């Protein structure tokens, strides 16, 4: 069986790695020219029941722990005046929680665990055509072609493969403004102390200023706003503590503005033989900590279903899809609720309540 995975992100690479462990070959087609063609973004907290479980299925737990930062789980939540509202400190030196790892380091870990030639770089899919004998014919930019028996769309938010299964499209839920403060310990030690080893959120009315420590010594700063908010940076932080807004003024270069989108809660598709989806292509959610974790779990679960049901791959894919739809429903609902809470007028009170354990 020839398996084609379109997209070399975390979900697609986890799928390829777990398939490889089961003795099943797959080709990953990635549109980027190389693994270093672009920045892979900030850090991720890997959850025990999803991302870490997927890495265990991939046989990569030890390598993950050698690069992860348990201290990165520390989380500070402030108000615009700089007052501490919540300060979560993880158990020192343990991996019992949700340790952080740079997205680029995690992707490299998965890439390094694949056999040579398993990823075809510079292959952007422009069309997929069903073959009369079953499977698919893929056409790449530039005219190259390849065939497969099973096509897996792991090609993210704007998935080409998704359109072969459903007309459902993402809609905007927020705007994210991203900035970088490099070499923060040397150049801006006061900001290094403010953020600490992990993450910081400063929660205002309908907006959040966040920062996270990266493994390269930089801070990745993000400003989350409602999708319809188009104010300039200079208009966002009137009355805020200058010690907090220095996260913006200390940034190295111009801001990058991204539209954050999500698929409708409960989105699914009718099963079609020879094709399926994983990760954001299947269930794009607001970025509140679940997307990468669920994508990796998708990849591991699909690989395990295929390995166990190699005699009937279509039944294996169907079983994966039904299990994934059931799992993702509550996760997508929770993610949408957290996203709405974070950008509400009462976000500070709501978030403190969310992060404060109930007492009896």
From TrEMBL:
Its EC number is 1.14.13.-. Residues 3-311 form the FAD-binding domain. Keywords: Cytoplasm, FAD, Flavoprotein, Monooxygenase, NADP, Nucleotide-binding, Oxidoreductase. The keyword Nucleotide-binding applies. One of its GO terms (biological process) is response to antibiotic. Its cofactor is FAD. Its main location: cytoplasm. One of its GO terms (molecular function) is FAD binding. It catalyses: a tetracycline + NADPH + O2 + H(+) = an 11a-hydroxytetracycline + NADP(+) + H2O. NADPH binds at residue 38. FAD binds at residues 45, 103, 280. It is found in: Cytoplasm. GO terms for cellular component: cytoplasm. Belongs to the aromatic-ring hydroxylase family. TetX subfamily. Monomer. An FAD-requiring monooxygenase active on some tetracycline antibiotic derivatives, which leads to their inactivation. Hydroxylates carbon 11a of tetracycline and some analogs. Consists of an N-terminal FAD-binding domain with a Rossman fold and a C-terminal substrate-binding domain. This is Flavin-dependent monooxygenase.
């Amino acid at each position: 069986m020839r398996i084609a995975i379109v997209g070399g992100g975390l979900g697609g690479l986890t799928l390829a790695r777990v398939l490889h462990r089961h003795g099943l070959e797959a080709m990953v087609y990635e549109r980027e020219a190389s693994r270093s063609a672009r920045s892979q973004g900030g850090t991720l907290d890997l959850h025990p029941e999803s991302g870490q479980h997927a890495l265990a299925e991939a046989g990569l737990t030890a390598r993950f722990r050698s690069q992860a930062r348990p201290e990165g789980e520390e989380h500070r939540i402030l108000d615009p005046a700089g007052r501490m509202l919540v300060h979560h400190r993880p158990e020192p030196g343990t991996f019992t929680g949700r340790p952080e790892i740079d997205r680029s380091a995690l992707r490299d870990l998965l890439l390094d665990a694949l056999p040579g030639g398993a990823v075809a770089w510079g292959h952007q899919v422009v069309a997929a055509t069903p073959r009369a004998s079953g499977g698919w014919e893929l056409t790449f930019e530039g005219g190259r072609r390849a065939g497969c028996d099973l096509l897996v769309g792991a090609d993210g938010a704007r998935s080409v493969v998704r359109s072969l299964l459903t007309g459902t499209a993402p809609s905007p839920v927020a705007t994210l403004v991203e900035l970088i403060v490099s070499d923060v310990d040397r150049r801006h030690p006061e900001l290094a102390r403010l953020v600490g080893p992990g993450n910081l959120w400063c929660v205002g009315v309908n907006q959040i200023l966040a920062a996270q420590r990266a493994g390269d010594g930089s801070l990745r700063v993000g400003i989350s706003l409602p999708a319809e908010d188009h104010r300039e940076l200079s208009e966002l932080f009137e009355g805020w503590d200058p010690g907090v807004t220095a996260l913006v003024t200390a940034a190295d270069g111009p801001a990058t503005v991204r539209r954050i989108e999500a698929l409708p809660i409960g989105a699914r598709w009718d099963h079609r033989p020879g094709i399926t989806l994983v990760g954001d292509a299947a269930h794009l959610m607001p970025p509140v900590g679940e997307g990468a974790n669920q994508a990796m779990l998708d990849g591991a679960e699909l690989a395990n279903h295929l390995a166990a049901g190699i005699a009937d791959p279509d039944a294996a894919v169907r079983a994966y899809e039904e299990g994934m739809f059931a799992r993702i429903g509550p996760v997508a609902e929770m993610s949408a609720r957290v996203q709405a809470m974070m950008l509400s007028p009462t976000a500070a009170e709501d978030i403190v309540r969310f992060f404060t354990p109930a007492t009896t």
